[in-house]
């Protein structure tokens, strides 16, 4: 039976996720802060809502996929927030990358409203969102996850239940701290071999295929060598994740030099005017030619 699903946030990720839900035959309502972004989804059969609360009215499931804690707070609990329109027993899913402290606060609000809450941050990027191959790091109670699972399965091919709300954010931030550090480290290495006059393709291939290589380094090598910075994952969002990650490490008593150093690289790139470019562009301010 077709499910009534609202999706809040039609950025790079939310757009692909909404499209997958439409392809699955669900009745999809979409909302985005900048309304123009919804046009292609409306053409594909989605209803466009005027606000999060409008989107959530009558929905069985509401999914948020927005930039950060502030955006999540606004779409769920703000003056036009979705939670106010959700009946008891409905399911709220937040797939944004958030700080676990905020996720725990949100879980309390959802519980007070009688709504099932599933935090489900994702790994995978634009291509995986469009292809329905995202992987979800879930924090929730088992009953809520059981209700959300058919919707998650329409958008991805891997659901891992890590514990209560907040657990998904912990693993997601650990994931992105590692990823951000690797991207920044490879950017420095590539800028170094270029500055010293080595054949950059040859050097990059030796690095990516050697011990320091990883799937992330391989992806970045392709983009940095081609100077292809079409957005998959934006520089300010990686800086945000490294900031949340640094604070989380500190809260666990772990002093992080690495997350902070990598974050400084992404902030530098943002200040250089690369805020609407892919994370691979972090190499540009380091390059001498
Ligand atoms: P994006 O393209 O920058 O889209 C961000 C979305 O958040 C847009 O819909 C934006 O609305 C909305 N937004 C920002 N501030 C808002 C606010 N105050 N109130 C309401 N809406 C607000 O980002 P994305 O790549 O889709 O990422 C979405 C989330 O997924 C982020 O938490 C990101 O860290 C995470 N993530 C991204 C990737 C990736 O590879 N891209 C992978 C995994 C996880 P406007 O259009 O109006 O600006």
Category from helices, strands and their pairing = alpha/beta
* Shape-level CATH architecture of the largest domain: 3-Layer(aba) Sandwich
The level-1 CATH class of the largest domain: Alpha Beta
Mean pLDDT: 97
Q: Specify the number of helices.
A: 12
Quote the distance from N terminus to C terminus. Answer: 57 Å
* Helix content bin: 40-55%
Note poorly predicted spans.
none
Let me know the largest β-sheet: 6 strands, parallel
Spatially, the strands of the biggest sheet line up as: 3-2-1-4-5-6
**In percent, how much strand structure appears in the residues?**
5-15%
Question: How would you characterize the overall build of this protein?
Answer:
The mean pLDDT is 97. The protein has twelve helices and nine strands. Helix content is 52%, strand content 14%. It has helices spanning 12-23, 39-43, 52-56, 69-77, 100-112, 126-131, 142-155, 167-195, 200-209, 215-226, 235-251, 258-274; strands at 4-8, 27-31, 47-48, 61-64, 91-94, 116-119, 122-123, 134-139, 156-163. The protein is globular and about 65 Å long. Helix 8 crosses helix 10 (215-226). The protein is α/β, with parallel strands linked by helices and 289 residues long. The protein has a six-stranded parallel sheet with strand order 3-2-1-4-5-6, with helices on both faces. The protein has a three-stranded mixed sheet with strand order 7-8-9. Strand 5 (91-94), helix 5 (100-112) and strand 6 (116-119) form a beta-alpha-beta unit. The chain folds into two domains: 4-163, Rossmann fold (3-Layer(aba) Sandwich); 170-288, N-(1-d-carboxylethyl)-l-norvaline Dehydrogenase, domain 2. The structure holds NADP nicotinamide-adenine-dinucleotide phosphate. NADP nicotinamide-adenine-dinucleotide phosphate is lined by residues 9-14, 32-34, 37, 65-67, 70-71, 74-75, 96-97, 122, 125-126, 232-234, 237, 241.
